[in-house]
């Protein structure tokens, strides 16, 4: 055993960490099973990622009718949404509604961070240390700490000298005011694009510091009319069936047509149709089947988007800086008028590859071209240490006194994105090498699988009087990791510096962090695992 204080103040069957989509559903499933459950959450209320990411313009990149749980049919048909894409406040309100509807708040403990966890082989339980002091003990530990929640906060020379206000998109304050202010935004991934699009209309000056230009497609967001809602409700069963059997669960049929198999005119028609309908995933995966596997097809898609950028941005120099030249091979982005904002005289862009940041000053940011950009506020839209960042930032110690951080020194791995050898009875929702998809359907899939595993174990322990242990095998993890690696080798995603492989965090080793085989295939893998009697696990 390690140095963690093992004085136990509370014992439950299961501890769930995180009150986002994953933690809420996991809590419900385990409570329904009859287990005693304690959900702990660092924030002061529910929401997970959507509690912290309340920055201006925060919006899901998934159609509203699919960015929710599928398991409550009555609620699906009745609960309202205002637009075809959900903003952060509406997502938060929905999650609050689910918690109240199913009376789950009584199992939740807020303002409580897991600061450490350690497996006790003598009792076959987890001891969890929290920020509020008392330790918790449980047979099962399920983490829903979020795919995108550990902030990536770059350090620049002189940052402590800056006298304006600093913000990070992942820890946005409830009170802020940018009206009439000079604002700098660092980063132009999904978050940066949304912030820039939102605040450009009311700031005095906006300077966008860009490392890598992005391919951004319209979202297609619009008011959700009664006719739209009626159509969705009439077809909800089929909509969910298609989503869960598809690769990305975004509600469209992924293309099976290679790009070069059709004429140039047909390519343009297909691209234009997808552009008008909106959604980044639809454009990348619903147009042609080989955009992320064929360099030739990828370049055709990229050329189409580049032409759109040049058509939207009037200033040739701004357009040049905003136009990407590399592969169209990062997580596809969508927007609500991003490029058009650069037609404002008070909105400018700094290419950090041409003029890197040299230092922060008392007044703002100085770049290598000698310009000092005077700013009242600076926003870090620099993303997250995705997937494994929250696991390696604290001590989670399994068997043999080994922490997850030590085990993952050469790259994060797991079996099915759920389990790690030598870490018994620990289950991760959206862990390393989980599916790369619309998240709520993936979360549901994983939670239901975890619940089945625990039900098998818990039921047996009740009969025998012992705490049965569930642990994945080293071979299962190795084979799954190898499969994820092999699938990703066919993708151009591997050739782009992206958070998808951890490239956005300085010093972090690039590694495969997702299963790119699609949700439908992933669900088949889990089904086969169940039918095999859980061959990738052993129970003891």
UniProtKB/TrEMBL annotation:
<keyword id="KW-0285">Flavoprotein</keyword>
<dbReference type="GO" id="GO:0050660">
    <property type="term" value="F:flavin adenine dinucleotide binding"/>
</dbReference>
<dbReference type="Pfam" id="PF00743">
    <property type="entry name" value="FMO-like"/>
</dbReference>
<keyword id="KW-0521">NADP</keyword>
<keyword id="KW-0560">Oxidoreductase</keyword>
<dbReference type="GO" id="GO:0004499">
    <property type="term" value="F:N,N-dimethylaniline monooxygenase activity"/>
</dbReference>
<dbReference type="InterPro" id="IPR050775">
    <property type="entry name" value="FAD-binding_Monooxygenases"/>
</dbReference>
<protein>
    <recommendedName>
        <fullName>Cyclohexanone monooxygenase</fullName>
    </recommendedName>
</protein>
<keyword id="KW-0274">FAD</keyword>
<dbReference type="GO" id="GO:0050661">
    <property type="term" value="F:NADP binding"/>
</dbReference>
<dbReference type="InterPro" id="IPR036188">
    <property type="entry name" value="FAD/NAD-bd_sf"/>
</dbReference>
<dbReference type="InterPro" id="IPR020946">
    <property type="entry name" value="Flavin_mOase-like"/>
</dbReference>
